[in-house]
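pipeline/complex-builder :: batch 7 item 3
reading input block
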Amino acid sequence: MSQYRSLPIASGGAGDDLEHARRRRHTLTWLGGLSLILLGTIPVAVGIGPVGIPPGTVVRIVGHHLSGLPALPDWPGSADTIVWLVRIPRVLLGIAVGAGLGMTGVALQALVRNVLADPYILGVTSGASTGAAATILFGVGGGMGAAGLTGSAFIGGAAATALLFLLARVGGRITSIRLLLAGVTIGFVLSAVTSFLIFLSDAPDGARAVLFWMLGSLARAQWSSIGIAVVVVLAVLVLLVFWARRFDALAVGDDSARTLGVSPDRFRALSLALVSLCVGAVVAVAGGVGFVGLVVPHIARLCVGGAHRRVFPVAALIGAIFLAWADVFARVAFAPRELPLGIVTAVVGAPFLAVLVRRFYAGNV
Amino acid sequence: MYERQGKGDYVMISAQQVSFAYAETPVLEEVTATAGDGAMIGLIGPNGSGKTTLLRTLYAALRPGSGRVEVDGTPVARLRPIELARRIAVVAQESAPELPLTVVDMVLLGRAPLRSVFQSYSREDHRKAAAALYRMGARELAERSFNTLSGGEKQRVLIARALAQEADHLLLDEPTNHLDIRYQHEILALVRTLAITTVVVLHDLNLAARYCDRLVLLDGGRVVSSGEPDTVLCPEVLEPVYGVAVRRFEEPDCVQLGFRPHAGKPDYEATPRA
């Protein structure tokens, strides 16, 4: 019987490669364009502030520090200090935080198969907040200065992640819905713990300091404190891009993923650990900057479609640009007071999301 | 590209004495079924008879409580996911993803098991994806978002993805769901032209009669009958299983069936279910 079915059938359109070249050009255009914007953002964003410094001077100062050119400074020493010691680390941290939140938002939306997910549904941020509150209010690890706050926030985030695995993993399996519920539960419990710490504390400005931390800020950026976040974000981005097809497969469904060469349970656990590490590293230095991880993935998908090999780098770039500018706004709008970053991202992000939902997702999602 | 000629390899997928239970409820009880040699095997049976469960044990989504599932002589449980994907392509019954993948991206996913994590899709992959879309009459859908397709279009795209995978076995869970009559026939006729071993879950017995080489009839998790459509699709086999009156008539190339509800006929009420 079966040999009769081996008759060759005209496949039609031989040589048709679905416009492979055009597709690739489209993606490269987006990546190239956004990279240029990001590169341009750095000197401009560094230049803006209470003391304005022209982008050209910023570029010369950075060149002087990196390559010794120009060899002789033609700018005041104060400009050097502001640019090199204060604002460059701050802008770089903003880029790392924005990129990290953008791409982990994409990853989580695929992992739980829900476009409403963001990096904070895992409860990592709540854990980090609890850790930070313990330091701010009770001086836990306070002997280590700024590193103590970052460290206790990171430990809090890691503890929340461990709890998440404990709750969501049943019989070696983590399903999307269990992950969502466990993350929300942990988030609520740890928020309650943080509130309880504030209640217990006698520190007069304690509640305010904790609130400010939870809303996010890049004000604590220094060369010494941004290294880990930058390295972790870059490393996770590379891994996510390599794993992009697995995210595609997982987004389609567990059974489909399984038959496309991905073990859904193992992969979900592995990428969850990776994403938690990235979110923890970012939140530990910058606090809980909201909305970036929710909005940026949607914008990225509008630009380059849903395939993760394109969405991850584009979301990282858009997140980086968005947060760099949000921080410029945060430090300029009410100068000399600084607006918490989370307020800016929410105020800018929410209308953006509303427009996206109404205009682009009608009849689609 | 999908036709393999004169391949005498040992290509088969088999379930032997497979039992499976959800919690305490047995769903499959000592089911034995084999598909090989490029044949098209239909799994038929009433709702809840265990068709999809059996199919899912074949691609290792479920691990049977007892019994063995083997592909080409290797237990599926022992295959790494990537090895499994190179041997078995599946069109499962899953709801569409919320994330907006285009049809091209969806079909290209079939090529993913053939590429390492460090490789991107090649031009060849894009060609194969295009050819698979042509085969399913879905080439013009390539740029569309998968979410926006009709049920029938989605089904054709998913089968195209399975074709692009170029596996030796194809498992389909009710591929004719959501399709109008023309596409039901077109898709099954197309699947028949593929020289790969195919296991297909079907509800429509007349489609099963027309396109399958052999049928396995399940009821209550047990194999009630198996063999050529001619032997399985008999009123005396089907009536107790489905609880409807069955009339059979011969067409030139296959048998076809007509159905009529029993409407409280006393003679049927007396018939014990298998």
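note: Chain B is about 30% helix and 30% strand.
queue -> next item
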